[in-house]
């Protein structure tokens, strides 16, 4: 570990406080800003919502000369420049929409040294006039936003970005920085090469987005399913992604008919109509945008509370990008993906068609299909979704139970006797001599007498018909789930075959446990029944002690103020700031200034109005004002649950004291059993009950305790495996909590 870095220069922190109102930098921001101040090339990979823009904006503000920001979309540039103007940062843009007069005056401002940041597009920047003017005006930095657009391998290649290869030639003395939210190893290397970065500082943030809850569900009755997601977030912003334009139009119309403020968005609409839809969404006149993937980078609304995929996306990278548009403000948000086996075929056909039209190389098609297959495996997997996504991007995921995905929350049903089922599948792969694909293995297991099976004598195998009552789709899911857990391998590009590895044999010998889940394919929910997965209702997003009604009023006020000032609501205050206002309920300027995200400029412009509204509301409801922040403490069990509502937890504790079961508490407090189980572990740690046999049978306690003697209580998994997967993680967690209280 390097020694602690010296603090950042005081003027920089002062500027961040004054203009942005942030009291501290995030760790990666600090490193990126250090590189920028030192004039060192960098490549910064930070997830959406990580705060990339501050990394180039703040250093530019305190340095002499100017920074050039390359951005792919005019709408994005305009938003940024407007936003910066609001907080007193001199920035301009050079894009194709300027009139000749505006262009002349912008050039004059640049020449006279009146601006600190210049936003422009790649195609403008390579224009002689433009780069010479910028260079002569002292451009010390070129920051390339959405840098993955330069790479063929990224999910959003833009040919005009290729011109950036000449940056070095135009700005020999400047530092070059690339910023992106998504980049696999491959894309990263490509960006560095294309931009000609010189021994860049590589800064990669964690890809995990702990505030997002991921769910994957088979598509059964799409409209019903989508509505149940929307109903969990009444009045909040959401995006629904569909595969085709027609699906978008149909879904938008149906949602409108159902009374939602929904609008379509896709490339087949006129630019004018698209612009209107986008503006309605950012100004909070519309709550829901139904879109094809064409809708994305231009949106700048950080309080999107849910993203629904009506079908499987093409790649995991796409999924990460699109789902990542939820919760950019860091507040709890939900991502739900609905899929069916048909998606794979539809997407494959689309890929093949477009490859044919573009006369793409066969390798391209093969690579795309491989990515599609990874996506399908994610959908059908039994692995924690956070873990699967993070690992896809080559990072480790340490948490045993994320507490924020369908798998960990217990939304899914475990297949009874998964070990036996897995053994049957694996031994069938062995019997066909690891030379056939999933479809064939499944046919054998289901006892098919087709020509393909009989001609190879596979109807004579001992594994023939071993799982004849299991539907094909389930078997396919389970094969994918075994691959996902690394105990079965799919090899070969064109005709992938199933192969075994050492882990497969460990499973067959009973030395290794696996988990299989049953996707609720056929259990069509009765109309009007409660949604099966109780996602976080909107109020959960508020910090403990916040007044929900006040929050709603402040949101309304924000919308009004924004339209009065002709800006987007977010430029007034973010949801985070409003939530904190609803908790702290400040009534003085000083108290308001203490909220992170309230800088001098916003305070001046909007402070009085909000203070007045808060004071009025608190008087009327008799609420305490200027509430100090709660003392922070680290939860003993799991940090991810820190956003959980304390009222529900308190109620759960009370019920536990009376000896209530997890199921009974779950029903009472309306939380999933998995969450309640976490509460129970916390309850045991905190209140040290004399016995836990009411929650975990005595013999199970003894088995877990014996296994814990060998493996300790540091991690759940070794004990889970020791017990052959026969004791649930939930039970192990409870017993661990109890054992820990006994040790002290
Ligand atoms: P990105 O471009 O990486 O998606 P943004 O630059 O839009 O992220 O920032 C995401 C959100 O985080 C914004 O609402 C921004 O105001 C907030 N933010 C950025 N930096 C900080 C910070 N240091 N402290 C608090 N909030 C921050
Ligand atoms: Zn999980």
What does this structure look like?
With 744 residues, the chain is of the alpha/beta class. The chain has 5 domains: 10-204, P-loop containing nucleotide triphosphate hydrolases (Rossmann fold), CATH 3.40.50.300; 212-392, 3-Layer(aba) Sandwich (Rossmann fold), CATH 3.40.50; 413-518, Winged helix-like DNA-binding domain superfamily/Winged helix DNA-binding domain (Arc Repressor Mutant, subunit A, Orthogonal Bundle), CATH 1.10.10; 548-621, HRDC domain (DNA polymerase, domain 1, Orthogonal Bundle), CATH 1.10.150.80; 647-743, no CATH class. The chain has 33 helices and 17 strands. The strands form 4 sheets. The chain has a 7-stranded parallel β-sheet with strand order 3-4-2-5-6-1-7, sandwiched between helices. A 6-stranded parallel β-sheet has the order 8-13-12-9-11-10, with helices on both faces. A two-stranded antiparallel sheet has the order 14-17. Helix 8 links the parallel strand 5 (139-144) and strand 6 (175-180). Helix 2 (27-37) packs parallel to helix 3 (52-62) and helix 18 (418-431) packs across helix 19. The protein is globular and about 85 Å long. The model is unreliable at 522-540 and 632-644 (pLDDT under 50). Bound molecules: adenosine-5'-diphosphate (ADP) and zinc ion (ZN). Zinc ion (ZN) binds at residues 384-386, 402, 405, 407-408.
